[in-house]
Amino acid sequence: MFAHSCRLVFVVLAVSGCAPPDSTSEEQLRPVVPIGFDPVPIPVHNPLTRDKVLLGQQLFFDPVLSLDSTVSCATCHRPNAFFADGQAVSRGVGGRPGIRNTPSLLNIAYHQLFFWDGGSITLEHQVFGPLQNPDEMALDLASVLQRLESIPTYREAFEELFDEAPSLRGLTQALGAYQRTLLSGGARYDRYKAGDQTALSPAEIRGYKLFEGKAGCLHCHHGFLLTSLRFENNGIAISKEDSGRARVTGLEEDYGKFKVPSLRNVAQTAPYMHNGGMATLSEVIDHYDQGGRDVRGKNLLIQPLGLEEEEQADLEAFLHALTDTTLFAGMEGP
């Protein structure tokens, strides 16, 4: 249908026997997931098709969706940075800084609420946030559609896939479909869990035992995603402009709570925390070892751990073993 200068192959898409209700040209596709993962949840209203995913990928990398045509989704979610950006906080049009760190989009298909505060309820709906945020892409939705309508390849693609001119429905469905293909497993940790006792070093194995035991990481980082997907106050000092989950719910008990991030690829996605305030894993480990700060609403599980220096080093070593060693196999660069 169209080409893009950066072709990424992160998952295999297999053909399902069911035809999608909103596509006139293709059978439904389903991602082949990493070993140990649940099937990717695909909403009935937005089944995957190959051309829809390709359209979503094209849109994801296109800065035309921003006010000054300099910022795309991929500006803050760079493939070679594990779909994060390596900055403390994101910068949008005109270099304007936001207030939050960019989380990785890998395995975002499994999330149930989106953004650090859970302010969006579907992967499709979350598209509206960065598009309209003045510190991100800063373009009103009417202008987004006008721009897409003015580009023949987009106009033709929307007509073919959705039987209509460029629309918010098509835009959000295409971007949602593409993001559901961004899957990441394949870490040495996974090989160890599958029975390969040589996959982890002795230090990493000791760190794994600490992770599940003395360090207590498993309380919030469990399952194949290594996250509970809940919202927790982990003892970080909260700024006046960002009260976390409470911004969405208005509830006092949600003050300072942010979504627990997945620890997959955590060694590759520094800096850390919702505000990017910790530059290294050792800082993060020290934060929890000290029991966090004495802040309002801190989770009662955040208590001093009493980790020895060698134990902290072992725990950090284990976190490095959560890096996907297969992610970029088959990726073709720009």
Structure report:
The chain is mainly alpha-helical and 334 residues long. The chain has 2 domains: 168 residues, Cytochrome c-like domain (Cytochrome Bc1 Complex, Chain D, domain 2, Orthogonal Bundle); 133 residues, Cytochrome c-like domain (Cytochrome Bc1 Complex, Chain D, domain 2). 28% of the residues lie in helices and 4% in strands. The protein is built from 11 helices and 4 strands. The strands form 2 sheets. The protein has a two-stranded antiparallel sheet with strand order 1-2. The protein has a two-stranded antiparallel sheet with strand order 3-4. The N terminus and C terminus are likely disordered.
Going by CATH, the homologous superfamily of the largest domain would be Cytochrome c-like domain
**Helix and strand pattern:** EEHHHHHHHHEHEHH
Portion of residues in helices?
Answer: 25-40%
End-to-end gap: 19 Å
Number of helices: 11
Q: Judging from the principal axes of the Cα atoms, what is the shape? A: globular
- Gyration radius from CA atoms, angstroms: 21 Å
Estimate the strand proportion: under 5%
Rounded average pLDDT: 91
Strand order of the largest sheet: 1-2
**Number of DSSP E strands:** 4
Q: Identify the CATH architecture of the largest domain.
A: Orthogonal Bundle
Q: List low-confidence stretches.
A: 1-9, 15-25, 329-334
